[in-house]
Amino acid sequence: MSKLVHAQWSSKMTFVLAAAGSAVGLGNIWRFSYMVGDSGGAAFVLIYLACVALVGLPILVAEWLIGRRGQENPINAMADLARRNGRLPAWAVVGASGVLAAFLILSFYSVIGGWSLSYTLGSVTGRFTGQDADGIGALFGSLLGSPGMLTLWHTAFMALVIFIVARGVTKGLEGAVRTMMPGLVLLLIVLVGYGMTTGHFGEALAFMFRPDWSAVTGGVVLAAMGQAFFTLSLGMGIMMAYGSYLGEDVNLIGTARTVIILDTVIALLAGMAIFPIVFANGMSPADGPGLIFVNLPVAFGNMTGGAILGLMFFLLLTFAALTSAISLLEPVVELVEERTPLSRVAATLTSGVAVWALGIAALMSFNVWGDFLIFGLNIFDLLDTFTSKVLLPLTGLGAILFVAWCLERQSVASELGLAGGTERLWHLVARYVAPIGVIVVFVTGLL
């Protein structure tokens, strides 16, 4: 059941904030910066930006274009555009795989968001004060080992996400990103300011930005290409759904550049905030999730003003998780709202509860269902692996192939404001370079 009047973003700026908020997630807070430091510093950044320009940006623009032309949920948009352009309606499977990816990702992403909420409260109550690595490790292990506590925090996080999304595009999504994105940037700037006082800020900058071309290998290039693809929330139905709320006045390529710049700057600021604290406390930057949930709490618990800094950091982490989570729920809700008689609130509750239920299975992978394996993976890891290595690249590949090969070339060029050499460059990249890049990442991920 398609709606006669489709919601619209109130301004270009709120759309940019929403798209950037979707792109800025938990991985940006530690993973990108660590990859920069461990994979050649400034050399990796340059390779990453090239991959963004050749793979990420074209697919991002393609997904927005599909959403804006369709003005419906990803499945309906793909089916309708295929029909209008004389193509098989089976192209709708591209939209379906994106919505499925968003649904599955949010189920386990919410579990990690729950960890962040738990640690935010722990910072307030002084749970980390005076603790050593063994003590914090035991606290984290206790959290993972308790299905009751994990369910409590998973439920609290999903309740926040459902509340925001149920309020709709203007009051819900826009209201949230208008508050949380500036708050996220402000928290980052304050934490970077603190990092400058540790005496290890220069070491952090050298770790992240000193060019080391000898560290660049084929694996590093593939990692940069994968990061360029996944950091922009591509292949999840999100950008198609967000594009469906766009008016014709928004320049898609220019807006994509803005979102990419914001996403990259925030990721690098996160590194400049985290790594001075890491080096000042003699920790390894390569510890991944352990860095966030074990090592940093040790540092916060044993430094002057650590309680306040810890609270700010985990608020930052929670904001990043929430802005991504609401974007993950949106394409699912849009689909349910447009294909059923349910209202926005009822569609959100139905979708959110279904995601929450699958999340219960994911969190039980850490405790009572720890021995239950499918293809050698527990439920949490299976959801992560299937979405990141299969659904996301295939959905992104389908989107760019559809726009580049199935839509009329001149109409796409006109909508994107391209002509002459720039149009020929777009055509080359969209038809050949970006798809080949995704295929390489997809095949490599399966090996």
Automatic annotation (TrEMBL):
The chain crosses the membrane at residues 12-30, 42-67, 88-112, 150-169, 181-201, 221-247, 259-279, 345-370, 390-407, 428-446. SUPFAM superfamilies: SNF-like. It is a multi-pass membrane protein. InterPro entries: Na/ntran_symport, SNS_sf, YocR/YhdH-like. The keyword Transmembrane helix applies. Keywords: Membrane, Transmembrane, Transmembrane helix, Transport. It is found in: Membrane. The keyword Transport applies. It comes from the Bacteria. Pfam families: SNF (PF00209). PANTHER family: TRANSPORTER. This is Sodium-dependent transporter. It comes from Halomonas alkalicola.
